[in-house]
Amino acid sequence: MSKKIKFGTDGWRAEIAADYTFDNVKRCSQGLASYFSQKGHQGQWIIVGYDRRFQSERFARAVAEVLTGNNFYVYLTNKATPTPVISFLVPLKKAIGAVNITASHNPPQDNGFKVRDQHGGAIAPDGLEQIEAMIPDDIHGVSSLPYQDGVDQGKIILVDPKKEYIQHLSSLVDIEGLKNSNLKVVYDPMWGNGAGWFSEILSSGTIEIHEIHSERNPIFPEMRRPEPIPPNIDVGLQQVVAQKGDVLIITDGDADRVGIGDENGIFINQLQVYALLAYYLLEIRKERGAIVKTLSTTSMLNKLGKIYDVPVYETAVGFKYVAPKMIETDAMIGGEESGGYAFRGNVPERDGILAGLFFLDFMVKTGKTPSQLLNLLFEKVGPHYYDRIDSRFTGDAEQKKQQILAVNPSSIGGLKVTSLDTTDGFKFNLEDGGWLLIRLSGTEPILRVYCETTRKDCVQAILTDGLKIAGIG
Q: Is the domain 11-160 a CATH 3.40.120.10 member?
C-alpha cells in the first residue's frame, strides 16, 4: 500500500521524486475522476493545465491519461498557462472542472495538483475531502488510456486560450487606455507562467513593459521561491529604480497572485494592495457589492465597507472558502493575505494578471504614482502596518494548537487583547483595531505569525509576542 495522500487548501503539493511521483499524480487523478463520476459527469470535459516547474507538462499528460481512461474528455493547454486562464477556460468550454499541475509559490523542489470546480473556482472543503477519500491506495486502482490513443480518439484536445482570455480582459478593464498611457512598467513573472502576458496584452502603444525573470528556469534563481513578497522581489524592486519605472508588477509562479512595488522601489504589501483594489472599484469605478476577505487580511476593508455602505464578509483562510462566499453574495471583490484577489465579472478565482491591470488602470485614471495612491488610501482609512514571520513546523499540529490556546494572553505588544477568534488558527483582536494571527499553513509544514496594527511602533513587539505564544520565540 502506498502512502496516504492528504489534500490541503487547493489540492495536493509535495516534493518532486520523494512523494510527488507519476504514480501518485495518477492516483490523485483517479480520485478526481471517481469524484466526478459519482456526480454523474462521465463523458464530459475537464481542463488540464500546467506550470513551468520540472516535468510539469509530463505530469499533466499523466493526468489526461487517467481522466480519459475513466471516460472523460480533456482540453489540455498547449503550453504552460497561468492558473487564472485555466480557471477562465472552465466556463468558457462548459467543462465540469479543472486540474492544474502547479505548486504555485512553493519552493522549486515541489509540484502540485490543484483542482477547480465548474465555476473555475476552488472546490469547497467537503468536495476536497471526498476527492481525497476516493484516491486509491496504490497504482493498481488507476484506470488510464495512453496519451497518443487519447489524442487519436479525440478525447484529448490541445487548446490555446490566450486570444479568448485577452478579449475577456478587454471587457473588464480599459486596455486601450493602458496601452497609450506612457507608463513604464517593470514586470517580474518570477520565472513563471505570467511571462510574456503583460507585454502581449499591452503591446502596440506608448506603454513600456520591461520584463525580468521571464525565461523558464525551474530552480527560480535570485529568489527563495516564486512568491511575490520580500526577499523574493528584491531584484524587481532594484530594477524599478534602475529603469526609472513607474511601478513594479509581480506575479507568482502560476500568476494567480500579484505583488506591487512603487516608483521608489518600496514594496506595497498584500494587505495594502487589497485595500487599494477595493478602493479603486468603489471610488473610481463606482461599483457596489460585497467584499469577501479572509480573517488574515486587512481591517481597512471593514472601514471601506462602512464608508461606502457595502457588506464585508470574513472567511477562513483559502479560496476554497472565499470562492463559494463570492458566488453566494455576488461579491464585487474577494481576496486573501497571500496576494490573491478575485473580481466580479471574472471567474471566482485569484487572477494576478487582471489585478495587475486594475492597479495600472487606477494609476492612469487618477494620474497618481503608487506611493501617492497609498497615501490617498491612508487619508481615507488611516495608516495600517503589517508584517508576518514564517517558521518551519514539525510535530503534532493538534498539540501545538492546544499549547497556543493555553497561553491566553491579556495583552500583546503592549496592546490589550479584546477578543479571540478561532475560526482558522488563533486571531487575537487588539484594542487599536489591529490583530495578531497564528495559524498553521494548509499547504506547507509552516507556522505563520501575522499582524496588522495602526501603531507602527508596535509591529515588531506584536510579532515577538506572537512567536512566544506560538512557542517559537
A: yes
**pLDDT band for position 1 (50/70/90)?**
low
Query: Looking at the whole model, is its pTM more than 0.90?
Result: yes
Q: Strand pairing partners for 210?
A: 186
* Distance (Å) of CA 409 to CA 225, 400, 451: 34, 16, 15
Give the confidence band of 399 by pLDDT, cuts at 50, 70, 90. Answer: confident
Instruction: Enumerate the H helices of 143-231 as residue ranges.
Output: 147-152, 162-170, 175-179, 197-201
Residue (of 306, 286, 456) closest to 383 by Cα position: 456
| Domain range 385-469, its CATH number among 3.40.50.300, 3.40.50.2300, 1.10.287.130, 3.30.310.50 | 3.30.310.50
Residues 6+ away with beta carbon under 8 Å from 62: 22, 25, 26, 29, 144
Grid cell digits, residue 29: 487523478
Q: How far is CA 445 from CA 5, 8, 397, 441, in A?
A: 15, 11, 10, 7
The model's pLDDT over 343-361, given as tens digits with 9 standing for 90+, comes to 999 999 999 999 999 999 9
